[in-house]
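Course assignment 3, question 2. Fill in each field.
Student: A.L.
Task: Predict the tertiary structure for the chain below.
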Amino acid sequence: MEEETKDLAQMPPLEGFEWRGLIFPEIDCLDLTTTQNGQEIKLRSYRWPAENERKAVVFMMHGYGSCCAQMAVIAKYLAQVGYEVYGMDMRGMGDSGGVRGKLDTNKTIYDDYWMLIFEACRKFKINQQKTPIFLWGRSFGGLIATNMANTTIGKAMFSGVCLLTPYYRLFTERLYEAYKYLVPLCKVRPGHVFPCEYEDMPEDYIKKYKLIFEDPRNVLFFTATTAKIWVEEQDVARANIENAPQPVCFIAASKDGVVRNDYIEEFSRLS
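Answer field:
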């Protein structure tokens, strides 16, 4: 029966969950090998080729605890209009290797995504001078995309950025009130685990997204190091957004959820 199925990508489409039943046509298309704790790990990569001539390339970045496979429906529609789409599961998430739910440092997050981008350009002969390249990020992926676009390389490489509910501010202030304690905690217990903020969401929210929460690929906790990274990357984004040289498209939710819309609107004004 459907309730017994663990691979949601294999389940039939359901109203409100159009990503179900969609699988990227190319999986593990890139050799994204790196290390963690001295061990070699493989990051799961995805590609959805443009249906006709490739007019541009999009690199997708998923939210924290999620995975790229859950964004296949967006990749499909982009491919139908000529965009070639690439993505990967962050280390420790989705079907990528690594310690479950462990983000090592700010730097390793960016190193992994730059590896995706440069390996895709190499293997699939993406001419960075002639082919427009865009970043598409959701939630935490939107925060990372914001900051990647504002690096020296990003300013020269990316033609634009599309951000779906970027993670500029958590809906609860507890994370920011606790930041002064996170710094010393990360020195002694960097892997200390906290349950994800979803547990504080209303019951109707939990019910609505039940199928996503039950996806075994998802991570429903975070570490002290991860929380510290969130706050630091949000501060970097705020400092840089006014200098973003590319066009930026901000997409807010219909109402506040895990991410606060008022901060997305403020960043939109600042950009």
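Instructor remarks: The CA atoms of residues 94 and 217 lie 4 Å apart. Confidence is low (pLDDT under 50) at residues 1-6.
Grade: pending
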